[in-house]
Amino acid sequence: MAPGRIASDVRLHFTKTTKEGNKGPWAVCKKCRQGMQGIVQRLKKHQDKCMEQLQVAGNEDQTPDFSERPPSAKRPKTNENLSGTIDKFVSKTNAVEKERLDMDVAKFFYATNTPFNRVEHPSFKHMITNLRPSYSPPSRKDLAGPLLNKTYENCLAVAASSLKDKFVTLMLDGWSNIHQEPIICLSACTSSGEAFLLETIDTEANSHTANYLQRITEDAITRNVALFNFRICGFVTDNAAIRWRAHRRKSFSFTVAVHTS
Q: pTM value?
């Protein structure tokens, strides 16, 4: 056999070709597409090395056949592939998601009685950015305006649905707000234990006399019965004067009780 000629048993694994600038024979491995001088010893050495790598990667029968692909062929990069890869690392917040997140932030501030200006504190903004870079939290004006109104409307709708045609016990009690101003709150409790704050009445400078308390109580009951369409089976207050006047005037068709602290 002439020197440099590819032996028949080795040649089956290579494609004989030529290479510009190369004087001797040139061969390309059918498995890994690597090109080399067509010298028998070099081809055998490469074949042994290539077969070892294929066995590590998996069974030779399951190895893809690259014989139909040109040595220089490369898979083109498409915009679709690039965008699909980038999307995994990009944070996006659409209008629907922002509205939902704004409501979640607002409910936290309302439930914890947190001052609205805290939403613009650099530390709070930094935390939100770390959690979701594409989301911008609402401003304090949003918390005090549209978000508060929407939360109130949602709570009103839940109360209306839960109280409709239900028998409830009304509760009237005097409290003080965060400014230590006197207020009166009217609540309703259902037979299943659900409690709802129906109304908060600012009594301003009015003295809590029996006549005054009787009047605002009757007005509050009339308003809330019309609004929520519930049925009253009892009324509890901490003011004995209201109970006594209600008993004398027969103002209510339900039982009025007085609780003690």
A: 0.56
